[in-house]
Amino acid sequence: MVLGRSLETPSVRAIAAAVVANPFANRYVDDLSPLVSAAPWLAGELATRCLGVLGSVPEEITAYGKGAIVGTDGEAEHAAALIHPTFGAPVRAAIGGGAAIIPSTKVVAAAGFRLTMPITNRHDIWVFDDMDAASFAIDDAPRPDEIVVALCYATGGRAAHRIVKPQ
């Protein structure tokens, strides 16, 4: 119910997040491949947990988003290594594909930072109904030498959506 109007379709979001040690905290390194290599397993685990929370079949997922918070002893590039080059394929595979990019955000911040992840339609980034965001925080993470990595899956667009793309 939105402002007294019944909703035709439910809109549900699930966020799964992991807190991982940052092996590069407090030091600059050129080769971030250990983070890139860890990303597919992490993405698959987060996807499985999101689907479990939603209790949905993969085809019901209409939208997705991702994000990361690097603790203050790290850098944004550590988040980029985790959520960009190899993270997306397992996220898409878990839901039977998706042609659109997985929108993301990354930030260096202290424990308790509230991360807002953009969400867009998994097949077409220009589906206005699915253009939204999901936010969460973990009170005691990330510590300075940690990274929080998160994934969001959504079923349905914004509640009571009615904006259409101009022709």
In a nutshell, what does this entry contain?
With 167 residues, the chain is an alpha+beta fold. It has 3 helices and 6 strands; from the N terminus they run E-H-E-H-H-E-E-E-E. Helix 1 crosses helix 2.
Chain-averaged pLDDT:
93
- The CATH architecture assignment turns out to be 2-Layer Sandwich
Strand content bin: 25-35%
Domains counted in the coordinates: how many?
Answer: 1
Structural class estimated from helices and strands = alpha+beta
Unreliable segments (pLDDT under 50, ≥5 consecutive)?
none
CATH class designation: Alpha Beta
**Morphology:** globular
> What is the number of E strands?
6
**Could you give the distance between the termini?**
30 Å
Radius of gyration: 16 Å
Q: Helicity range of the residues?
A: 10-25%
Instruction: Examine the coordinates and then state which fold CATH places here, giving the name of the CATH topology.
Output: 60s Ribosomal Protein L30, Chain: A
N-to-C SSE series?
EHEHHEEEE
Chain oligomer state: single chain
> Helical stretch count?
3
| CATH homologous superfamily caption | BB2672
Biggest sheet record? 6 strands, mixed
Please explain how this structure is put together.
The chain has 167 residues and is of the alpha+beta class. The chain has a single domain, classed as BB2672 (60s Ribosomal Protein L30, Chain: A, 2-Layer Sandwich), CATH 3.30.1330.110. 22% of the residues lie in helices and 27% in strands. It contains 3 helices and 6 strands.
